[in-house]
Amino acid sequence: MKRSQKRIAKYENLAKAYVSSYTHGTPAFVRMLPTDRCNLHCLYCWQHNNTSTDMTMASFQAHLEKAKELSVGLLTFLGGEPMIWNPLPDAVALCTEQHVLTDLTTNGTLLTSDTIEELGKAGLDYLNISVDGASASSVTSKISIFQSGMMEALKEARRKHGMHTRINSVIYKNNFDEIWTLIEFAKQHDIQLSL
Fold first, then answer.
1. Global model pTM greater than 0.90
2. Who contacts 144 (Cβ-Cβ below 8 Å, separation ≥6)?
3. Which of 25, 85, 176, 177 is the most exposed place for a label (fewest CB within 10 A)?
4. Residue 79 contacts residue 40 (beta carbons within 8 Å)
5. Spatial distance between the Cα atoms of 4 and 122, rounded to a whole number of angstroms
């Protein structure tokens, strides 16, 4: 099946899941946390436990099968930092095979042109990159979108694989200037921004 046909099948599945959620009370979306571990320590975040055990691929497959039984149309990978979880590209590919849309939220520190390409090939539909500003602070160092070559790799992934990218940002005390920088950056690069 061609990439465009796979994407159409995913959206058809999501539409059915959405209707089913109203008529049968089943979930249209599911959030999966394959790891609680994170490679950052942002002061405002409580979502990391670097001593926890990651989900196995077998466990992920079992959860995905149950999600499919419940007519789920979209699976979101969260964490911790989900890109620390080694089976991530295989899990995304499995979702693609099952016609389930995928959404990944990452701090972006492990994104490179190679990892972006790998996720695109696996069929990742939405890549949400958490970015809190253009420069690191004592609160957060989520600035990956400003790495050299990052926007070019993301634009290529969109062109080649149809992968949509969005910047997610947290507004916290004293980062208003950084938020304005992000707004201007998003406008300049025609990228969606969520605050």
1. yes
2. 107, 108, 109, 111, 129, 131, 150
3. 25
4. no
5. 14
Q: Rg of the chain's alpha carbons, rounded to an integer?
A: 17
For residues 28 and 14, is the Cβ–Cβ distance under 8 A?
yes
Mean pLDDT of 113-129: 97
Q: Is 49 in contact with 36 (CB distance < 8 Å)?
A: yes
Between CA 51 and CA 142 the distance in angstroms is: 22
Q: Where are the beta strands (DSSP E) in the chain?
A: 29-32, 74-77, 101-106, 126-130, 164-168, 192-194
Which tens digits make up the pLDDT trace of 165-176? 999 998 888 888
- Report d(CA 193, CA 184) in Å as an integer: 10
Closest CA to 167 of 125, 130, 120: 130
Quick one: what percent of the chain has pLDDT higher than 90? 79
Q: Alpha-carbon distance 135 to 139, whole Å?
A: 11
pLDDT in tens, 144-167: 999 999 999 999 999 999 999 999
Give every strand in the sheet of 74-77, ordered side by side.
29-32, 74-77, 101-106, 126-130, 164-168, 192-194
